[in-house]
Amino acid sequence: MIIDLAACDIVFLSFDEPNADSNFGKLSSHHPRARRVHGVKGFDAAHRKAGEISTTKHVVTVDADNVVIDQEFLSGNFEIAPRDAVSVFSFSARNVLNGLEYGNGGVKIWPRDVLLALRTHENAGRAEAAVDFCWTVPYYQVNRVLSEVHMTATPAQAFRGGFREGVKFNLADGVLAYDAHPGLPRAEALPKHIGGANYERLRVWCTVGADAQNGDWAIFGARLGCVMTALEGFDTSKVADYAWFSDFWSDDVFPKFADADVRQRRQKELGVLLNEELDLRLADLDAAGSAFFKSAYRGRRAYGPMRVV
Prior knowledge:
Layout: E1 2-4, E2 9-14, H1 20-30, E3 35-38, H2 43-53, E4 58-63, E5 66-68, E6 77-79, E7 88-95, E8 101-102, E9 108-111, H3 112-116, E10 139-149, H4 155-168, E11 171-172, E12 175-176, H5 177-180, H6 186-205, H7 215-231, H8 242-257, H9 260-278, H10 287-296, E13 304-305
Parallel strand pairs: 2-3, 2-4, 7-10
Antiparallel strand pairs: 1-6, 4-9, 5-10, 7-8, 7-9, 10-13, 11-12
Helix pairs in contact: 4-7, 7-9
């Protein structure tokens, strides 16, 4: 089965990202047919809106913090097996903060019917759908990097991106590691539940990026999100709540940790706690250490169905 991507609608999804206008301009300069959904509250609502404004059988979505680097792909053909006609194809994205390449934030090809029928995140009908799409819709991970993620333009954007991943990497199939394996110590339950690749990604999020603009905010966010989820009973569904995140940032996080020295001390304390309780073996890398890691790191690759429903 061939999907003619040149004939598919492209929808750019933005809410409050500081680099959204610039990134949309880059996308539309190559693909004038690109449309935009902006300011719709909620991950589920924004994606369903993308389906509503589209008319093609398949729809390409591009997140606002993404810069597409493989423009020719979106003007070509994509061949899939007939059995995968109902799947969402998630392409890898390279995060310039830490060098990770996986599906987070990447370009996706959706069957329009799947977009229109979504009930996830803020509209989730079941608990495992409240944090991510991939646990309740048929996802197929394609190990091809189509874009770069730039999510550290401001301290708030960097913190939010890191915090979300720090939370999400405690989950698999929407279930917390510690609920799935209540009889195991937390340090054993986490890698057993989420697998080696995601365990590695969590450690990278909590360690790498000091060389990037506002990168320390992302690392701080990842560590804090992991601690709150693994050790403090944080309600993971809140990562999909824009209003909660805005209040959390403005009321609790920024006033307390705007000072770089205060933030760095707390970041190190969180690292010690994660090493003691989850045995993550985190290091505190400086800018040179982060840059070296990214120059040498070659992450694990994922390819194939991620969820069959």
